[in-house]
# Entry
Amino acid sequence: MSSSPSTIRVAIIGGGLAGAAVLRGLLRYPHIAVDMYEQKPAFRDEGPGLSFNATTQAMLAAIDPELGACLDHAGAVLTTTETRVAAGPHAGREIEINGLEGRCKKNVGRQAFLTEMLNGMPPRMMHTGSRIASVTEMASGQGLLLVFADGSQKKYDIVIGADGTHGFTRQLVLGADESLTKPYSTGFWSLPIKVPLARAQQAMGMQHLDPSNPHQIGWIGDGTAIIYDLIGNGSEVQIIVYGKSDDIGVGEDDELSGTPWAKLFTPDEFQEMFASNQIPVCQGVVDLIQSVYTVQIAAICQLEHKPAPTYVTKNICLIGDSAHSMLPFQGASVCIAIEEALILSTLLGRLPSKAAIPAALQAFDQICRPRAEQAARSSTDTGFLVTGRAPGIGLDADLIQQQLRHKYDFLLNVDIDAQRAAANILMDQLLAISGV
# Structure
């Protein structure tokens, strides 16, 4: 790492998608020296695949023009999106959603994309197996001291927390208040599986999984939702079943936090949840899952944090799930994380000196936090709608249509150039106020 006084030293804690996006965005700036730390032995971002709408694809290109090629190299599939009702009097009805018409999304495996994002990055910046013991403020404005579990130390001017829902960097910004730092169970759960195309076609029907005409199809059920699509250049099928918890199933708690992390079902209990589902392909999905989990079905509890009053201190910034874990129903988490990576890298790239760091981070917080809070609220609303549990709406296709038609507008229609300009103007105003 450069020792030049003018160099701004940045540590990214967390080697997932959000951290990798910020890393790619900062590499273009010669005055920034950046390191990325991951406590696991390899850079991994576990979980279901990702859907990138056209707006988010444009943001990736603005971060780094090569990220579009990374999507393609990772096996992204250009996909048409459909949403239909699977139960109730309107079973089979399509729900039309503005902005999701035609082939507008690229679906990709999460780990495959992360691997491509980090492929070719300078090895000196990439640090796996790095367990950080503490992050402390040094005296006289000298920055932050990272102390590692092996006793080694490094100094930085900025720390970016990108270590996810269960990471420790949220405490660096918000303190020890567990009501703000620990996630809570939302009552929603998810069950993702990934299977070879031929196996999925056998269970679900070839007509529903055509690599020459790829679709991402979501089915709204009575307390459940099913989504399936193609990834891996069409060689694999990703299936995600969502549900809203009731009295069925047994929970498993995290030993450290006591927060339920899994919802356990017997095969019979799982089958019963889809008794009202009238769509044959959905029953094929249930049969396929039961062929994978023959004894006990373990779904993942969906967690959220309470909204944070800020994402920043004067030299620490939270991004992605570290700042705002949210439900997955609109794919908003990845959209917002990429948007934040673009704005944060833009602001840090404009830093005239280390003294300007607080203004840049405050501008990031004031521009990005309201968007993330809106996304979290919208994702929760969508979760109730797509599982047929929205009060007063249920499985009424007409009412679902009214609520979902414009639900994605704020994600799809954002003017990212205007967002970046607003962030830059706000940073300049804060710098003028502070006299930097």
Q: What stands out?
A: The longest strand covers residues 184-196. The CA atoms of residues 218 and 227 lie 4 Å apart.
